[in-house]
Structure formats: C-alpha cells, structure tokens
C-alpha cells in the first residue's frame, strides 16, 4: 500500500486542493490536474490516483475512467521533452508514419503500438512521443510539435537535427 | 393516473397502463424490438441505438428503451428506415467483433449473435476500428475477453449499482474505449468479488466463467480416481432451464441420472452439508446469544459476500459466522468421514461441485480449504496436498457437459442421491433462495429455544423479493429481530448500520446475488431477445419452495444422516473436530477502494 505521507510530501498542495474542490462540479478534474502538475514527470502516478480515490471516496476503476477519458492526463511518466506527431489524413499521406518511425528509432523506443497507446517514453525519461488525430494545421502537413512549438513541413532529416539539438541541451 | 393510454403500433391500436415504456408497449403489441445495452432493472444508458423505432412527428428515430409510451403516439417498429439504422449498428458492431461464433461458449445463447442473425447482414462491410485488447484470466472465477465486448455497459452497471463493487468501468475514449479495471490490470488485482453478475448480464461471450469442464472430464475418464459430485440446492431448479426446459422446471431426479451417465462414482447433495451448516451455524448463534459474541451474526455461505466484507468492511469480520459454506463443509466431510467409511484413499478422491455461482471456484481455492488433507496428515498420512473441493462447475458448465455427452434429459429416469451424503431436508432446499438460510436456521433455532416444534414452518415475511426483509420471531421467551439481504448493494446498507452501531438485528442472512442462489452468477442466461433483467428467478424460487414441501423432513436437525455423522464422527456441533473441518477464519482482503 502506498504511504500517504510520501504522496503528501511530493504534492504539498494536493491535500488543500482536495479539501477545496471535493464538492464542486469539475472539482475532480482540478484535483487531477494539480496532481499531475505536481509530479516531476507530469503524470498521474498510481500512488496519486489511489490517494485521491481514497480521499474522495471514489472507486478506483471510476477514477481511472475519468483519468483515461481526457487525453490531457498522462498515466505514464512523461519525458523531459515531448514530440507530438500528427497522424491526421493530410499528414499521413505526406509521410507522418515515416516521421513517427524515425522519431522512435532515433530515440531508441523499441515498441509503440499506435492503436493501443497514446504515448511512449524513452527508458531514461529524455523524451516522450505522442500522436494526435489532427492538429488542424493540414496545410502545413506533415506537422510535428516539439516541446509545444509547431514545426511544419517536417522531414526525417529536420527531425533528426531537432532531436540532436535537444540532446545537446538546446532548443529544437 | 392508472387510466390506460392508447397508442398505435405498426398500425395496431393498443392500450397500455399509463407510465409504460415504449418497449413494453411494443412488446404488448406483439412487436419485438431488439435491445442490447438496455436491461430492465440493471442498465439503461441508451448507448447502443439498436432499439430505434420511428415515431410519427419526430424527426429523428427514437430509442424505445428510454422513451415513455404516450397517448396517441403512432409508432413504426420495423419500417425501412428503422431496419436500415439497426442494420448499420449491427454492421459496425460486427466490424470490431471476431467471427468466432463456432468456437465461442456463447454460441447459441449470445444476444449479439441473435440480433445479427435476425437483422441479417451477410457480409462484412467495415474493417475494425478499435484495438482488440487482451483477455483477462487472472480471476479464479471470471474470464474477460474484451475482443467480444460491444461496450453495452451492462456489466459496469450491475457491478456498480447492484453490487456496489465498481471493479470495472469504462476507460479511455473513442476507439480506445474499453471496459477495464483500475490501471487495466487483471480482475485479480481489483476489488472484484467474483460474484459473476457481470457474466450473467453480458449479452456476448466477453465475460464468462472460467471453464473447468475439461479438467472434470479428464478426472471422470481416469479409472484410478474416485469422483464424487455434490449439487447445490439451486441447481435442481435451474439446470432444466439451461437445457431448454421451461424456467422453474424441477429436475432433481433427472439431474442425478444425468450425473451418473456422465460417470460420477457417487452423486451426493450439497443439501446434506446445508443441513450440517444449520447445525453448526444455529449452535453458533445460540452460543453468541447466550454467552456473548458479535451480534448481529451474519451468514457466511455466499463466497462473493465473503469477498465483499473482507474487502470493504474488514472491521466487521467478527460478525461473520465462522462456518464454512456448505460446499466446503461437504468437501471436508467427503474426504474424511466418507472416504474413511467407504475405504477410499482420500488423495485419489475428487470432489466436484455443481454450483449456481462463479465465486465458488475461488472459494474452493482459498487458503486453508484443505482441512481433509490436514486431518489425514495428523493421522500420519503422507501424500502431496489436495484441496477439499477440486472443482466447482457452474450450472451453465454442467449443462454444456450434459449437452456435449448427448444426454437427453427428457428421456432420463428419476433417480435418487447416493447415501449417506445425499440425504437432506426441505430446510436445505430453500438455501437456494433469498431468505432460505434464515428460514432454515429459524426452523431449528426456534425449536431449540422454545423446546417444542414450531406451529408453522413457513416464515412468510422472509420469502419476498424485496432487497432487505426483516422479521421478528419469538424464541425462548425473547424476540429475535432478523434481517435478510440479497445483492451486495443491500448488504452494504446493513453493514453501514452495523458500523454506525444502530443495527437492531441478532441475525442476518446475506446472499450476493439478486434473489439468492437462484439468481447466481453461474445460472442460465435469460432467454434471448428480451430486455427483461429477471432470468426466470421467480419460477426457480417457486420450484425450490415446492421441493421443500414435497420433502417429508423439513428441519435440518431431523436429518438422520447428519445425526449419524455427529454420532459416529464429529461429536457435537462446535466441537473440536467441527472446528477443524467445518469452520474457518475470514481475514481482510486487499483490493478495496482504499488500499
Ligand atoms: S460473443 Fe456472440 S457473436 Fe461473438 S463470437 Fe461469441 S457467439 Fe459469436
Ligand atoms: S464478478 Fe461481480 S464484482 Fe467482479 S466484476 Fe463482475 S459484477 Fe463486478
Ligand atoms: S463486457 Fe459484456 S456486458 Fe460488459 S460492456 Fe462488454 S459486452 Fe457489455
Ligand atoms: S439504446 Fe436502447 S437498447 Fe441500447
């Protein structure tokens, strides 16, 4: 059983938040968001979820239902950097599958089943790769977002140098 | 209010009571409207859309399952537009569904299959849109195969609303939507109590019991093994139904004959052990009433219920009777007393139980349910360990074995149980229905306390279908307040009151399933093409009360074979040997909402 003390230690404000939001509509989402932000690797750890479920009196499966419904919540540790590959139709026809494969192999992620997972993270926590259904930037396809910045008309070469820059501690 | 209303369905005027749903009205007009997600009394989330009908004046098609019948409504249940919509829904469901019917345990009882067959798409038009997921076989009782799930939500509703366990819920969104336990881990790591109600309500093969028929068949085919079978009270009132007879068909004699044809060496009755349970549990209650002990005392024969209190209310465990369930008492007695008497080596004996219940599988595998082995070892036996009960099959599994062996129930003679573990009383029969264990216990306990036979054996206030029933009975110059609950949601209400300290009862019976064992998680599925939640419960219950009246002896303490068991072997109820073989410890279990 995870210790409450540890979770509280990591998320000092979570207890307050739970107190403040527990009976408000949408309160649960605010609490989950805070719990995610408080984690260094920006995800909802199993410990946090168990803690919140116990404090709020919500069954675990139900809380899990909420946490997995919103793509905003991560159930796995996120890397330091985030690379989002658009898998919309326009990007797909302009080679986003190749971009995704290249990113995965450049980062050394062995397996990523697009149909089952929304994201994958390198073992060392350096970067996460995610896919989205569409960025709505189809005119600029293929589109990749690196650490929040949209990169248009991406190529495998451009992607490789961007990742290289991140490795050296720079900005993509 | 009660004025009937008149509406027109498929051109036919029909009067229905005000407040009726459109589904009822259609049914009354002879129109079968298919349903998938909707199940009366269980789930109504209007998510599947298969029940659409055309209502004059409404622009869109209307979902009959959530629409009230209104006076003057003009409804078409099978117009071209309706059929096109329904067919499209089925085709989309089939796109994500394996074409596995030939290999599927629900072949012939599957509601999706029935709907596909009647609506008749004959070609696959769409390719799969969602991942198949992985089967979960971690639970001793329940197997989930998400590939066959159509996301109807019935299991989620029954687990959450009826049972208040909430082990499973929808997870993810869009194409990744699935029914999952916390962190997508197996049921074994969830608070699931293995009650199996999800498997009863699932319209497809996505939730089933763990199938132990192969292991049992192999044991039956092994000449070096002596295989005995015990049948729970509720089986005689439901096996016929599982084999196509009308609900409530009472097939005691033919069931025994069928089990002999399958090759069991002895056909015994769990009811023998139910009478034994009453002797032990009744004495335990008297002991607690007279010498102190946690009150109310609560029955312990329903393993889903045991899992529930161990998971969610561990602090209240002292209230549980320490009695094992009849299934486990039977196993312990069969492999000690009977094996010894009949000169059978206990390690070559196999005990198979036929149960209305999926949780019985896990119960048989519980820690400490090997008292026979321990007893023989104390006597110097050395053999590898063995459990008291080797396999628990559900009613549905036995029905499959009988069908596979080509046994025609209708052509079988009526046969009798073997002696001595086949003898039982009417009190044991009614264990199979809610209120029955209480009534059986009162028949014995009141007579003990009053020192005279009871004027009447029927405790009518305990026989209804209300979720929680109570009665006040006079016994030994005092009034005993007792309560009976079925479904875990209702059990929770009584537990909350015990936890608050305001429970007025001395004795409580709890059954995990709606209606008690007659509605168990291993019982026959409802007839296809009906939206009714009740799978013949009432009829099964009435059958058990009929059997009770038919049996000459109706009080557990008058069971001669049980009396002989005490004389020859056990000594007295609650004696040393009883404690070793018939009682156990119930302990907190992980997996609850907080752990
Ligand atoms: S669940 Fe139903 S439709 Fe699916 S394979 Fe089994 S019988 Fe066929
Ligand atoms: S077996 Fe019972 S507790 Fe377990 S998931 Fe099914 S309904 Fe819920
Ligand atoms: S597992 Fe069965 S009952 Fe549950 S949602 Fe899927 S099809 Fe429906
Ligand atoms: S929407 Fe009515 S049965 Fe599913």
Walk me through what this model shows.
The complex is a heterodimer of chains A (172) and B (595). Chain A has 172 residues and is of the alpha+beta class. Chain A contains eight helices and five strands, in the order αααααβααββββα. Chain A has two domains: 56 residues; 87 residues, Glutaredoxin (3-Layer(aba) Sandwich), CATH 3.40.30. Helix content of chain A is 45%, strand content 12%. Chain A has a five-stranded mixed β-sheet, with helices on one face. In chain A, strand 4 and strand 5 form a beta hairpin. In chain A, helix 2 packs antiparallel against helix 3 and helix 7 packs parallel to helix 8. The longest helix of chain A is centred in the N-terminal third of the chain and has 12 residues. Chain A is elongated and about 50 Å long. The relative contact order of chain A is 0.12. Chain B is α/β, with parallel strands linked by helices and 595 residues long. In chain B, the strands form five sheets. In chain B, strands 2-1-5-3-4 form a five-stranded mixed β-sheet, sandwiched between helices. In chain B, strands 11-10-13-14 form a four-stranded parallel β-sheet, with helices on both faces. The longest helix of chain B has 22 residues. Chain B is globular, with a radius of gyration of 25 Å. The site of FE2/S2 (inorganic) cluster has 12 residues of chain B, from loops.
């Amino acid at each position: 059983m995870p210790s409450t003390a540890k979770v509280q230690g990591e998320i000092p404000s979570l207890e307050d938040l739970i107190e403040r939001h527990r009976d408000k509509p949408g309160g649960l989402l605010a609490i989950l968001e805070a719990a995610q932000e408080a984690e260094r690797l920006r995800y909802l750890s199993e410990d946090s979820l168990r803690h919140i479920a116990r404090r709020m009196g919500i069954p675990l499966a139900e809380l899990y239902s909420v946490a997995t419904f919103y793509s905003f919540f991560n159930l796995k540790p996120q890397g330091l950097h985030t690379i989002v590959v658009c898998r919309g139709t326009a990007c797909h026809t302009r080679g986003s599958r190749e971009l995704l494969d290249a990113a995965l192999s450049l980062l050394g992620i062995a397996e990523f089943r697009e149909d089952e997972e929304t994201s994958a993270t390198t073992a060392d926590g350096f970067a996460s790769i995610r896919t989205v259904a569409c960025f709505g930037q189809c005119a600029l396809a293929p589109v990749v977002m690196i650490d929040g910045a949209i990169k248009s008309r991406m190529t495998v070469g451009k992607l490789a140098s961007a990742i290289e820059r991140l490795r050296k501690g720079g900005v993509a | 209010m009660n004025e009937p209303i008149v509406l027109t369905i498929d051109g036919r005027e029909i009067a229905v009571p005000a407040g009726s749903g459109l589904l009822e009205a259609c049914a009354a007009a002879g129109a079968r409207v298919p349903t998938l997600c909707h199940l009366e009394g269980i789930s109504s989330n209007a998510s599947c859309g298969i029940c659409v009908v055309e209502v004059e004046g409404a622009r869109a098609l209307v979902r009959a399952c959530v629409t009230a019948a209104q006076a003057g409504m003009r409804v078409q249940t099978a117009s071209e537009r309706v059929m096109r919509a329904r067919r499209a829904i089925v085709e989309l469901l089939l796109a994500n569904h394996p074409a596995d019917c030939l290999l599927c345990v629900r072949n012939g009882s599957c509601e999706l299959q029935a709907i596909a067959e009647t609506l008749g798409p004959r070609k696959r038009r769409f390719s799969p849109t969602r991942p198949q997921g992985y089967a979960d076989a971690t639970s001793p009782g329940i197997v989930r195969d998400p590939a066959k799930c159509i996301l109807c939500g019935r299991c989620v509703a029954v687990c959450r609303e009826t049972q208040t366990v909430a082990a499973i819920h929808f997870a993810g969104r869009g194409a990744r939507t699935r029914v999952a336990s916390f962190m997508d881990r197996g049921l074994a790591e969830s608070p699931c109590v293995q009650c199996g109600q999800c498997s009863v309500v699932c319209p497809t093969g996505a939730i089933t019991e763990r199938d132990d028929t192969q292991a049992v068949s192999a044991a039956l085919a092994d000449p070096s093994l002596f295989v005995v079978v015990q049948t729970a009270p509720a089986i005689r009132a439901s096996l016929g139904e599982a084999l196509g007879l009308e609900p409530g068909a009472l097939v005691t004699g033919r069931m025994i004959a069928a089990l002999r044809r399958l090759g069991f060496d002895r056909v015994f009755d769990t009811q023998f052990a139910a009478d034994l349970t009453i002797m032990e549990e009744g004495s335990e209650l008297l002991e607690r009433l007279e010498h102190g002990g946690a009150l109310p005392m609560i029955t312990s024969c329903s393993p889903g219920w045991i899992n529930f209190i161990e998971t969610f209310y561990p602090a209240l465990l002292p209230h549980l009777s320490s009695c094992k369930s009849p299934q486990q008492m039977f196993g312990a007695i069969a492999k000690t007393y009977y094996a010894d008497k009949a000169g059978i080596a206990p390690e070559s004996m196999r005990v198979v139980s036929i149960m209305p219940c999926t949780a019985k599988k896990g119960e048989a595998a519980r820690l400490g349910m090997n008292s026979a082995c321990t007893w023989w070892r104390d006597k110097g036996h050395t053999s590898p360990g063995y459990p008291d009960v080797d396999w628990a099959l559900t009613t549905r599994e036995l029905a499959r074995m009988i069908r596979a062996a080509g046994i025609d129930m209708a052509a079988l003679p009526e046969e009798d149980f073997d002696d001595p573990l086949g003898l039982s009383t009417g009190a044991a029969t009614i264990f199979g229905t809610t209120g029955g264990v209480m009534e059986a216990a009162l028949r014995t306990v009141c007579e003990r306390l009053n020192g005279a036979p009871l004027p009447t054996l029927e405790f009518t206030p305990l026989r209804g279908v209300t979720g929680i029933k109570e009665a006040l009975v006079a016994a030994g110059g005092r009034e005993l307040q007792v309560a009976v609950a079925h479904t875990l949601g209702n059990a929770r209400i009584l537990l909350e009151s015990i936890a608050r300290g305001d429970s007025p009862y001395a004795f409580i019976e709890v059954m995990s399933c709606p209606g008690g064992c007659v509605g168990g998680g291993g019982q026959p599925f409802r007839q296809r093409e009906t939206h009714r939640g009740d799978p013949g419960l009432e009829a099964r219950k009435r059958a058990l009360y009929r059997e009770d009246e038919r049996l000459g002896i109706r009080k557990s303490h008058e069971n001669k074979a049980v009396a002989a068991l005490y004389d020859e072997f056990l000594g007295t109820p609650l004696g040393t040997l009883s404690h070793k073989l018939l009682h156990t410890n119930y302990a907190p279990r992980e997996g609850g909402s907080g752990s």
